[in-house]
From TrEMBL:
<dbReference type="Pfam" id="PF07687">
    <property type="entry name" value="M20_dimer"/>
</dbReference>
<dbReference type="InterPro" id="IPR011650">
    <property type="entry name" value="Peptidase_M20_dimer"/>
</dbReference>
<feature type="domain" description="Peptidase M20 dimerisation">
    <location>
        <begin position="192"/>
        <end position="351"/>
    </location>
</feature>
<keyword id="KW-0479">Metal-binding</keyword>
<dbReference type="GO" id="GO:0006508">
    <property type="term" value="P:proteolysis"/>
</dbReference>
<dbReference type="GO" id="GO:0046872">
    <property type="term" value="F:metal ion binding"/>
</dbReference>
<dbReference type="GO" id="GO:0008233">
    <property type="term" value="F:peptidase activity"/>
</dbReference>
<keyword id="KW-0378">Hydrolase</keyword>
<protein>
    <submittedName>
        <fullName>Dipeptidase</fullName>
    </submittedName>
</protein>
<dbReference type="InterPro" id="IPR002933">
    <property type="entry name" value="Peptidase_M20"/>
</dbReference>
<dbReference type="InterPro" id="IPR051458">
    <property type="entry name" value="Cyt/Met_Dipeptidase"/>
</dbReference>
<dbReference type="Pfam" id="PF01546">
    <property type="entry name" value="Peptidase_M20"/>
</dbReference>
<keyword id="KW-0645">Protease</keyword>
Amino acid sequence: MQTIKNYVEENRKRFLDELFELLRFPSVSADPKYKGEVLKTADFVAEKLKEAGAENVEVCATEGYPIVYGEKIIDSSLPTVLVYGHYDVQPPDPLELWHTPPFEPTLRDGKIYARGACDDKGQFYMHVKAFELMMNTNTLPCNIKFMIEGEEEVGSDNLGKFVTANKERLKADVVLISDTSMISMENPSLETGLRGLAYMEVEVQGPNRDLHSGVYGGAVANPATILCQMIASLHDENNHITIPGFYDGVIELSAEERKALNDAPFNLDDYKKDLSVDEVWGEKGYSTIERTGIRPTLEVNGIWGGYTGPGAKTVLPAKANAKISMRLVPGQDWKAISELFKNHFESIAPKSVKVSVVAHHGGTPYVTPTDSLAFKAAYKAIEEAFGKQPVPTRGGGSIPIVALFEQELGIKTVLMGFGLDSDNLHSPNEKYDVFNYYKGIETIPLFHKYFAEMSK
Ligand code: BES
Ligand code: MN
Ligand code: MN
C-alpha cells in the first residue's frame, strides 16, 4: 500500500493534467459534428496506453467509432483481467446551464467539472494510471487487457460484433469496469447489478397539416393532447406500469434480500433536499432504493410537438412525439418488452390519430455474483483503500454490453465504480471529485493484487 501511495503522491499533478487533456476532447458519440474529435480521442487513449506500458496497442476500426485495445501479458499461467471503459461522452447541452464550459475542465472545491469527468473518462483513466503505477513499480501481478470503446452512450452497437469476432484476443478471467457509482466516499459500496433498457420513440399523427386552433380546435384531435393522455395511461394510480405482460417474469427478491438492500445507508430527506423535491414518487410498495435498483420503470425522456418558439402561436399541431425508455430487471427481455410496448401503445391509440412506434437500442439486465473470487478481491481492495467494508448495492443505470461479455466470453463482470449518483452524469455541470480519482487509482492495484493472490 505504501508503494502505491508514494507513487500516486509523486505523480499527483501529472495524473490530473493528463485527465484534463483527455477531458478537453469533445468526444460526443451521438452527434456526427464531433466525429473528428471522437476519432482523435481514440488516438489519445491509445497513445496513453502505450506510454503506460501496454503492448499490441491498436485503434480497432469498426463500422462506427473505433475500439482501443492494449494488453500486457506477463505470464500465460497467471489470471487475466479485461478492463472495459468508454471514451465517448453524452452531448453537453443545455450549454447555458453549465457554470464553466463542458470541454474546458475546471477545478472547483476539489471537484473536476467537465462532460465525461465521471462518465467515464475520469473513471477509465484511473485504470490507465493504475496500470502505469503497477508497471513502473514492478508490481503488476496478473495479465491485463484494455478495451476502451467509443459508442457506449449510443448503445455499443459495434462492440458486440467486435467481442464476438475477437474472442481469443479478449480471453480473460474477469471483466473489470469502473463506470458506476458508490454511495459516498464515507460509505463505499460495490454495485452488484445493472438494469436493462428498452428505448422507444413514438409519433402521434393527427391531421395532414398544422391547423388554426380556433378554426379547427375542439373538432379535430390534437396529437399533443392525445399523446399526453396515452403516456399518462402507462402508469396506474399506484404507479405500476400498465402495459399487459410487462411484469411477467420479473424476478422478485426474497424478504431477506430486500432487507439487506434497504439496510444500505440512505437518507430520504437528504435525497429530497439534493433534488429540491418535496416528495419522492414511484411504484407503491417499494422503497426509493428498490424503485431504482430492483424494479423496472418507464420514463419519458423527451416530448415535443407544436409551437415551442418565443411568444404565442395559436396552432393545432399535425403531430407530436416522445422518446420513452424502460429500465428492466432480471427476468425481462428487452426485445420482448419493446414488442409489448409497441403493441400496447398502438392498441390504445384512438381512431382520431395514427400512431407509429419504433424501437431504438436496448440492453439486458445484469447481476454479478457476490461469491466469485473477483468480487471478493474488489471487496477486499475497497476495504483496504477506504478503511471500511463496502456495501453491496443494485445500480439503476445500464451498461448494455455487460450481459454480452458473459454470453460471448463466458466471464463475469465486477462493477468497481467510484462515481457518485450526484455527479451530474448526462446533465449540466458533470463532475468528479479529485479525491475519488486518486482513491480509485489507489484501489485498482489492490484489486489486481488480491485477484491474483486468490486465483492461485
Ligand atoms: N455509466 C453509465 C451507466 C451507469 C451510471 C450505471 C451510473 C450505474 C450508475 C453509462 O455510461 C450509461 O449512461 N448508460 C446508459 C445506457 C446507454 C445505452 C445509453 C444509461 O444507463 O442510460
Ligand atoms: Mn458510462
Ligand atoms: Mn453514460
